[in-house]
Amino acid sequence: MSHLRATDAETPLSGDVLLSADVLKWFAEAVLRKAGVADEIAAAVAWSLVEADLRGHSSHGVMRLPVIVRRIRAGAYNLETLPSVVSETPTTGVIDAANGFGQVALQMAVDLAIQKAQGANVAVAVVRRSQNFGSLGPYAERIAERGLIGFVCTNGAPAMTPPGGRGRVLGTNPLAISIPYKEAITLDMATSVVARDKITLARKSGRPIPEGWALDADGNPTTDPAEALEGSLLPVGGHKGFGLALAIEVLAACLSDSSIGTEVGWLYETTRPQGVGHLVAALRPDAFIPAVRFAQNVERLASMVKQATRPEPGATVYLPGEPEHRTRRQRL
Amino acid sequence: MSHLRATDAETPLSGDVLLSADVLKWFAEAVLRKAGVADEIAAAVAWSLVEADLRGHSSHGVMRLPVIVRRIRAGAYNLETLPSVVSETPTTGVIDAANGFGQVALQMAVDLAIQKAQGANVAVAVVRRSQNFGSLGPYAERIAERGLIGFVCTNGAPAMTPPGGRGRVLGTNPLAISIPYKEAITLDMATSVVARDKITLARKSGRPIPEGWALDADGNPTTDPAEALEGSLLPVGGHKGFGLALAIEVLAACLSDSSIGTEVGWLYETTRPQGVGHLVAALRPDAFIPAVRFAQNVERLASMVKQATRPEPGATVYLPGEPEHRTRRQRL
Question: Which 8-state DSSP code applies to residue A254?
Fold first, then answer.
């Protein structure tokens, strides 16, 4: 797999072999099909992996293929049953992922939310009995590409401690919001200070981590990445990040009747289904304001943000998602 | 006004005079009526101020009466026109606050969202041409008290710099999410690291502020509260907080066609209407899952969080909004 190694640098490192996105997707699909995954599911999973690599989020990219294949072989994915809509109203839907791939169920939820919001102006779909689907941003952007405001959130394996507490209670529960614009403005953030991957990386390179990233198993602050990996991550902004993570746990898991908090299974360490839940929402701007006027308002806002750039040469202020779009263009 | 001074401490400081909430509300209403505000509007504004004091958020409490009265006298509030619904669908509504009090228009949006969500399972209302309405939490909780998940956000006067930038571009754009529970679980957070009030307080007491709170007018980090007040606040978690603030600006201001970013007027420093926008959303849990089962899931989640309390005597982990409920009970 070493020739597939992607990096977060915007330019390829010498020694890396460059593959086109099509070839990478073809390869990922072939690996998944070989492991027994149906064509349609393999395509959905490969799309998610390659989109993450294209945007510079390689930790959610094709480097996940080995763990996915290990989990397939261990029976962690139901390969027989496709996700299905188990209940719906004109504005809501509940999808059962049946312990299959999260990527397939989430895409179904995105499609359902788009379709319902086009009719009813706002729609919310939840997914139960699901698994990790990688990066949220590309899915939220699929909603924005249809002219709707998109929202995606998911719970995850226990990793984070509430302020004043100890132990792992909630996942790093990420959320994504995508706003229709020339290239969609997309916030895609975990509610922890940093991703666990950064701590794994620090341990591998033998470097300490900054204070404020993590606690040890007893709930004490630590700068030792090994202790942190045995301990827990801290929420971004203390009570703020933890409150967001808790709200996401309610939206993604309590509403969908999925596994909650400490019940959730790990992507990397278990051979059982994770049981996570997701929530997708879509909102039609033109239910509130003419579409042209909305676009003008977003344009005005985006200009104000860009104009805040410092005068030094090379200084840049990015809109949320802008670095990912830039990396994606370069890599394509 | 000194006898009305509230503090954020949970027990009254000696020297403070304790007033019952009813007396405080009566007083605030009387002051507002005396300044020319109609009874119904005075009641709505006084409710918001007293709820903030009861929850320990005195910066949003009756200590705001003097600035409100000054602004009334300067003509910053339209006292003649009540807010009105200018367009609606079964799931959405647009309310024009007509440059009156934000408290009245936001309450109308909350009522509209509740009513529509009870029929359509999910509803979103926006408010345009509005003004500061104080704390978000009490309004979001009014939605949760009806068994719905409540969401409230607003833009605000420019105060915050994007990462890598300089100057004030966005407000501290707060959001609140309230989950139905014994006492509602309520996250109520600004997207800045700290509220501007904390920096004002530091300047008054002649203390420096920690690094990471604010920038000076040139966009350089500062620990001098006076420089910070001339400069800008930093978003919580860097790109994360700024991305949230930007998304809130789109939801609250771009959708409602309100003033955006640097166009927004200050509560404390201008005599003109602020022109801010708000967004309120309500979601019926029982559109996805039986109400009893949802309550069990939230209970299970809340228990997990409380069980993460450290073993030391006196250690406590709070659910979002729990300290406010506790302070409110004590103060009542």
Answer: I
Residue A303: CB atoms within 10 Å:
10
Contacts across the A-B interface (CB distance below 8 Å): 227
Residue of A nearest to B247 (CA): A177
CB-CB neighbors (< 8 A) of B242 in chain A? 320
Judged by a CB distance cut-off of 8 A, whether residue A90 touches chain B is yes
Q: Which of B142, B17, B131 is nearest to B64 (CA)?
A: B131
CB-count burial class (<10 Å; 0-12, 13-18, 19+) for A2: exposed
**pLDDT score for B50:** 96
Ordered strands of the B276-283 beta sheet: B84-88, B92-96, B122-130, B276-283, B149-154, B175-179, B185-189
Q: Which of A5, A67, A82, A57 is nearest to A31 (CA)?
A: A67
Contact call for residues B92 and B123 (beta carbons, < 8 A): yes
CB A58 within 8 A of CB A6: yes
Contacts of A283 in chain B (CB under 8 A): 124
User: If we measure between CA atoms, which residue out of B7, B17, B77 comes closest to residue B42?
Assistant: B77
Q: Helices B39-54 and B322-331 meet at what angle, rounded to 10?
A: 110
Contact B138, B170 (CB under 8 A): no
Question: For B65-77, b where at least 16 C-beta lie within 10 A, e where not — what string?
Answer: beebbebbeeebb
Structure tokens at B132: 């500061």
DSSP 8-state symbol, B63: G
Shortest CA gap B289–chain A (Å): 6
Q: Do A308 and B242 touch (CB under 8 A)?
A: no
Tens digit of each residue's pLDDT (9 = 90 or more) over B228-277: 999 999 999 999 999 999 999 999 999 999 999 999 998 887 789 999 99
Q: How far apart are CA B321 and CA B301, in angstroms?
A: 15
On the CB side of A243, CA atoms within 13 Å amount to 24
Given an 8 Å threshold on Cβ–Cβ distance, is A317 in contact with B285?
no
Tokens read off for A49? 């992996």
Q: What's chain B's average pLDDT?
A: 93
**Under DSSP, is residue A189 helix (H, G, I), strand (E, B) or coil?**
strand
Please give the residue of chain B at the shortest CA–CA distance from A163.
B317
Whole-prediction pTM value? 0.94
